[in-house]
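thought: fold this chain, then report.
action: predict
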Amino acid sequence: MEIKGDEIRRRMIEHDLLDPGGFVLAGARITGQLDLSDVVAKKPLVLRDCTTDQPVLLDRAQFSQLDLRGLTAPSVHARGLSVEHNLSLSGARLETIDALHMRIGGSVYLDDGFHASGSVTLSGSQISAVLSCVGARFEDGLFVVDLRVGDGIFLSQGCHVSGGGRHASVRMRGTRVDGQLVLREGRFSSPEVALDLRHVRVGKELFLPFEGVEGKAQLEGLTYESLARDATLDEWLSFLATRTLRYSTQPWVQLAAAHQAAGHERDVRRIRVAQQRDLRRRGQLSRWGRLWHLIRGVTVGHGYRPGLALVWLAGVLAVSVGVVLISGAVRCSTVEQVGYALNVATPLVKVDAARCTVDAGASAGQVVLAATWLLQILAWAFATLFVAGFTGLVRRNA
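observation:
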């Protein structure tokens, strides 16, 4: 069956004469261009499994429902399209979709074998229910910048997005999802950036398994309300440290906040320490700043592992005892020599070692005196770091 595009336009313009079910056509070949730009028809348009050799034009058109399932066409242009209920392109075969600033009262379905050999752009649109791309294939990127979605976005269960040119394969920057963002069993591949989720706001759950991400990701500004699903904490720590383009504080803070809200205090400390390691490796620190950062990390775990300072303090005491015992320059019993070593090194403990004397005239005695002065400085430093780190940790957890 063949029908001219002009005939479909005429019937939609004269929509008052249509059946309440709207204009329904299945398996037809549309000749000429189907141009429905600026058509206002408060009834459904259903063109299932239809084919056309020319782009379908829907700019600024208005329908109660638009069903283009199985459509085969070079492209669909739908800037400013308004649909009261659902827009379906399930199973469609297209080159490109240019659909900026749509207003959809229901859901948008690009699923069930949908295939686009070129780019698909839905940026700036508002979708009241869901955007479903389950099982779809996008060969030159999916661009949904500044999208507003009510219930959820599903790029899942076999959804494959590749390409994207100079942009990410999935470019979702600034999108707000009141419900779920689900990327479970999806595949997103690019030699450069596979996922651009900058400043995306997810109102409920985020389902993001990293094994489907083949390329880098941009996560700066991504927020979600609860613990992200489908990836372990170890996978998150590895991904943030190695698979993002550059160091950024916010993704680490967001991950820690989610675990903090869930009451996972030990995991929060792990996240904070991993964040500081990433900062030292990729952050913009001066040479001295990087050195001091390293010292803080080794000694107190950047304030999240103050117990490390006690380990270092114990090491200082052990070295002090070793120096005194090996030198032979301290005159008293072995037990008293140990007490003397602890006295001169530790700022916390004093034991009776009054009978001990140091042969300051001998070179070994001079080494003992110099070493114990240095060790006492280190002991005081580690004790102070422990107290400061422990106090700070208590304040953060209060």
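thought: worth noting. The CA atoms of residues 5 and 357 lie 108 Å apart.
final: tokens above.
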